[in-house]
Amino acid sequence: MRAAQVLTATLCAMAMAACTPAPENKADGRVDEPLPATTTTAPSLPLRPREVRLDNRDPCAVLTPEQRIELSLDNPPSAYVESGFGNAKACTMRSNISGNVVRLALVTVEGVGVWLSENAQVHVQQTTISGFPGLIVRTPGMDHVCNVEVDVAEGQFLDVMFRDGGNETAAKQDTLCQGAQRVAEAAVAGLLQRR
Length: 195
Known about the structure:
Number of helices: 3
Strand order of the largest sheet: 3-4-5-9-8-7-6
Oligomer: single chain
Shape: globular
């Protein structure tokens, strides 16, 4: 009886193996085999200290004139709508001093977790901006820009983009990320002052 069970199990295994396609041999000798299934979970962000809703805010009024001077943003702010973020209210400011450009976008249609999805295809580093969970976002192939995303409310985030404005000597991305963090800190402070 035991031998019959072993024989049956062996025959079943052989039948299953016969039905499984063999890896395809390529002309260069490589063998394409299916990759093992992997599961990735997005890292979770720490809790935000409070909610700061972005509805009905003016992105060009987030930074005070004094803050803009401190950040060397000496050109007047210019408001527009950022279609890439669900028609978010946005504001761009340029510095004649450094040649860099800042864009603030008040995203109210999705949370900051969108940047943690594998579909985002970006490099993300967690940080803290004035006590709020933040992300430093670098997009592969775009070394002239750095974004900082701040989780300010459920389903909403502040996007700070800091980019080189076409300087003769382009700023390094690490420098741009530091600039984005400084602007994000000032922007959160401005949002908290005008609650």
